[in-house]
Model the fold of this input.
Amino acid sequence: MELGKVYLTVVYERFKALKGLGDKAIARLSVEELHWTIHESSNSVAILIRHMSGNMISRWTDFLTSDGEKPNRNRDAEFIGSIATKEELLAIWENGWDTLFHTLEQLSAEQLLSTVYIRGEAHTVMEAIERQVAHYAMHVGQILFIGKQIKQDEWESLSIPKGQSSTYNETMFNK
Done:
């Protein structure tokens, strides 16, 4: 298999894994908890959902043919206001991810070195993808951190629980 195809497969799976972590964390939170912030200048999970979705729709719509910062995006609005129901938030979350995955599925290995623009700055397709992997990983990490702060001792680890690395490694090596 050629390197470009391998890269696209790996990055697709990386995005799927990030979405899966976000899905699990969001599912554990009530609508009230989705709107919780540690202080006024912090973002809630609901705000992070809106921001990530807005970013995904802007970046991944017409990915190869228009700037990734669409003129109709109101980024500042993503950080204010509130969406009342968990269902609405989940629909926004899914819409963003659906846009991303649809675009990734259409990309070919030959396009990875093509030039795309984000806010007028040139990137190879591969650079633009890596930029978004880092951005979404940061925000999913924030979602998990907020969930842990809210749930405290009720939080069940989404990775290897503290103090259980040896047991986990033993299980993995014995497969």
Observations:
- The longest helix spans residues 125-151.
- The chain is about 60% helix and 5% strand.
- The chain has a mean pLDDT of 94.
